[in-house]
Amino acid sequence: MTTVLLLILSVVTGVFLGKHFGKKEKLAKNLLILSAGFLITICLNEVFPQVYTSAGSSSLGIFVIGGVLLQMILEVLTKGFEHGHFHHHSEHNILPVALMVGLFIHAFIEGIPLANETHEMSPYLWGIVFHNLPISFILGAFLFNRKGESKSSSSYPSILIVALFALASPMGMLLGNYFNPDLQPYFLAIVGGIFLHISSVIIFESNKNHNIDWIKIGMVILGVSLALMMHVVHQHPTAHSH
Q: Does the UniProt entry include the keyword Transferase (predicted)?
């Protein structure tokens, strides 16, 4: 129950902040970079070790690559929304239906491995929470601050999109309960590929003209540091055996 609550609150909180502070693009960018540092650290210190120490790990690399390719396909629907690219497109080029489908699939798949997490406060869960916050911030800014639309005309579809996104990971976790626990490493490998793609794109594409951005570097280091502290605290409890 705690896991479901955290997943939903991460989306609701991000959307609320995006609705009221969405015009602050620098804040959105810094949140994305912070989450990317956190996410790539969780990916390398938690997800991949768990994947590659599991049975049949020699064939799991293809599922990591599959996760990268899957995320690239989903971005055809979301237009790179997950790493803040909606500012580089006309808002009308992003169809709410396509955005909803892409984000739902993305969050749903991330939720599946949570079904076999024995510790509710696992670093993997917090990776999703930190990942949800900036995406939801951008989602709230996009849905509730669109130009040329009255609040009443966009309110219900926007709330539906937010609700579906908030429930996607819990629904994935629910479905994961019906899978054989031995499949956990395969789902983790796919999600690891998704995490790796998104975090690397955010980190490496956020530099303009490849100049040194000390604020960006600081945000990455902060995200990495937070994830490393969580890794140390949960190092033994998060180990699984199959």
A: no
Residue 119 CA to residue 122 CA, distance in Å, equals 5
Closest CA to 81 of 155, 10, 165: 165
pTM: 0.84
Q: How many CB atoms lie within 10 A of CB 187?
A: 23
Tokens at residue 206, please? 């956020």
Give the tokens for residue 234.
């949960």
Residue 188 near residue 56 (C-beta atoms within 8 A):
no
Token pair of 137 as six digits: 């911030």
Report residues of the chain scoring pLDDT below 50: 87-90, 152-153, 236-242
Q: How far is CA 46 from the centre of its chain?
A: 15
Nearest alpha-carbon partner for 83 in 139, 18, 157? 139
176 Cβ neighbours under 8 A, 6+ residues apart: 111, 112, 113, 114, 115, 116, 187
Residue spans of beta strands (DSSP E) within the chain: none
Task: Tally Cβ neighbours within 10 Å of residue 216.
Answer: 21
pLDDT confidence of residue 90:
47
- Cα pseudo-dihedral 31, 32, 38, 40, rounded to 10: -170
- The single residue listed with the structure tokens 């639309």 is 149
What pLDDT was estimated at residue 68?
Answer: 95
